[in-house]
Amino acid sequence: MSEWVIDADTLVKTYQMGEIEVRALRGVSLRVRPGEVISIMGPSGSGKTTLMNLLGCLDRPSSGSYRLDGELVSDLSDDELAEVRSRKVGFVFQSFNLLGRQTALVNVELPMRYAGMMRGRKKRATAALEAVGLGDRLQHRPSELSGGQQQRVAIARALVNDPSIILADEPTGNLDSKSGDEVMQYLLGLNSKQGTTLVFVTHDPEIAAHTKRVVRLFDGEIVDDR
Question: What is the distance between the alpha carbons of residues 94 and 41, in angstroms, rounded to a whole number?
């Protein structure tokens, strides 16, 4: 196992908006050990989403290097990034991003399908849903579940490929306070019981208060990390 699950060195990301060049990240360096729980915070336009996209292998930096779980991923092609993403990253989004016409079970099977797994998908998806307390909701569609239950389906989907990190982007943003607390406890429980590395991208100081380290971005740079 690598000493660092996230090892990002001097990441720069520049976008071309017509004739204007926008520098979304300005040399960000970040290291995260396996099993850490961190929050990435900052105002709108600070570079949080850009950094999340790079850490989650959804995009490549303009310059700088990034190793995920010891594997250099910053120079990979789109197809290679997709393959690494399917193996090493679990995503939990504010909007759940579930397929509305599919059951909870099928939604959780999706990452395994994308990874090309042919056998054992149903068994692993069932186990993941049981782990988040939804063993009796396997055949329910999202519209038949509460917001908190939908987010737990999303957590099960994030976990099913045993990723190196879970990236949670405002995971309680669409939930009432009770459901939000419930989802946070599930996520933090994954860390305490299984050592899952958690990275929260959030505006919410209450989420940040649950994490052991807060990284603050401003204008594409880390201005605080403690």
Answer: 15
